[in-house]
Design goal:
This protein has 205 residues and is of the alpha+beta class. It is built from 1 helix and 8 strands; from the N terminus they run αββββββββ. The longest helix is centred in the N-terminal third of the chain and has 54 residues, at 15-68. The mean pLDDT is 81.
Length: 205
């Protein structure tokens, strides 16, 4: 019997096989990178959406408290100064100093803003130049009424008041806000609304 000397296996990967393996590895790495980026972006988007919704909820809670405690201004003028589809101006004590400030909620582009004017002088006056304005809700979808008003009896199946509304007739108002960080992309925006009976005016005509 003839014994052949040991011959090591000299076969290895060909250049083509190396290139194919490298291509597959690179493709997997690219896909994994894009997947990680998508997951990160979705997390950021979801976090922003939740923060916008929480901010809107806080704003509505403050608004309903302020409206329910409205009253005549410091110079005796009517509790509501102006009311249309995107602006509501009234008098209330926002800082618990026993003085009624003029408060204005209004839409500026896609931002719901709040303006406050402290009364000055005797008799009291509310100087527009003294209004302090701050953003309260960003990413508001425009084009729909923020504020809707009803008169005494305020059955919501009846027609609402036209705007600008006659302020002396208002007994119920609805504030409805839709927020959407990017209206061109799904998911759809989030809508929240509240109805407020204006307690201090219920007995007036």
């Amino acid at each position: 019997m003839t014994v052949l000397p040991f011959q090591p296996d000299r076969r290895g990967l060909t250049l083509l096989e190396i290139l194919i393996a490298s291509g597959i590895s690179a493709g997997v790495l690219v896909l994994a990178t894009y997947f990680a980026i998508d997951i990160t972006n979705f997390g950021l988007f979801l976090g922003d959406r939740l923060e916008v919704e929480r901010n809107l909820e806080r704003t509505l809670r403050v608004f309903i408290t302020e409206v329910r405690s409205m009253g005549p201004s410091e110079n005796g003028s009517y509790p509501i100064a102006y009311a249309d589809a995107t602006t509501f101006t009234f008098f209330t004590d926002v800082d618990a100093d026993n003085t009624f400030e003029q408060v204005r909620y209004f839409l500026n582009g896609t931002i719901l803003q709040k303006g406050v004017i402290e009364p000055t002088g005797t008799p009291a006056v509310y100087v527009p130049a003294n209004e302090i304005i701050r953003d309260v809700v960003p990413y508001v979808v425009p084009g729909v009424p923020l504020f809707t008003y009803w008169e005494q009896g305020y059955a919501q199946d009846l027609d609402s008041l036209g705007t600008p509304a006659e302020v002396s007739l208002i007994r119920l108002l609805r504030m409805q806000v839709t927020v959407d960080r990017d209206p061109t992309q799904p998911p759809a925006g989030s809508t929240q609304s509240l109805h407020v009976t204006i307690r201090n005016l219920r007995g007036e005509i």
